[in-house]
Amino acid sequence: MPYFSRTHQGVILLLGAALVFLWAWRSNFWMPPAPPPAQSLTPIFVEVTGAAAHPGVYAFDHPPTLLQAWRRAGGPEPLPGQDLQLPSGSRVEIAQAGAYRLSRMGGPQLLTLGLALDLNRATREDLEALPGIGPVLAGRILDYRQTHGPFRHIDDLEHVSGIGPKKLAQVKSYLTIQIQEASPPEPE
After folding, report:
1. 125, 160, 130: which is closest to 146 by C-alpha?
2. Which CATH code for domain 115-180?
3. Which of 21, 26, 48, 60 could form a disulfide linkage to 64, CB 3.0–4.6 angstroms apart?
């Protein structure tokens, strides 16, 4: 075994301490762990069309009420009497007299905004906006829905002629099935 003088031992100890310090500095050993990244909020999109001063699609941080969307788009007086909460993808069509109609944005617009299509409410045009779905396949989906009733699961699309596992995997992330709720009463 080799003999190390006190000087050699001091240098080895100093190098060892430097390596431990370097390791601790590189791994942020003395600092608390970083907090998790803030969750990004998905905006709520509402389209206002018709007799509004500034029609268009508006993004909200939280589900807006009809009055909030109406005011942001510069809807005419009188303001609507009902103040309903609007889900993302809603469309408010304002008539000149202040009457309005609530509906859903079109499929191409929903997909552009990153919102899913409701498989049980989608029109032919909506379905054709999906990747890999043309007019013939969109017609088959509508025929199947008409014959067998609403889809219960997105995977039920495999029962439609022309849709196999690959096609289903291609479109599945663009679709949703929402529970049909009673629609709000139309204003008079």
Report:
1. 160
2. 1.10.150.320
3. 60
Q: Could you read off the pLDDT of 110-133 as tens digits, one per residue?
A: 888 888 999 998 999 999 999 999
Taking the C-alpha atoms of residue 59 and residue 100, their distance in angstroms, rounded to an integer, is 20
Q: Is domain 40-105 classified as CATH 3.40.50?
A: no
- Cα separation, 160 vs 155, in Å, equals 10
**Cβ-Cβ contacts under 8 Å for 3 (sequence gap 6 or more):** none
* Number of CB atoms found within 10 A of residue 74's CB: 13
- The token pair at 9 is 């031992």
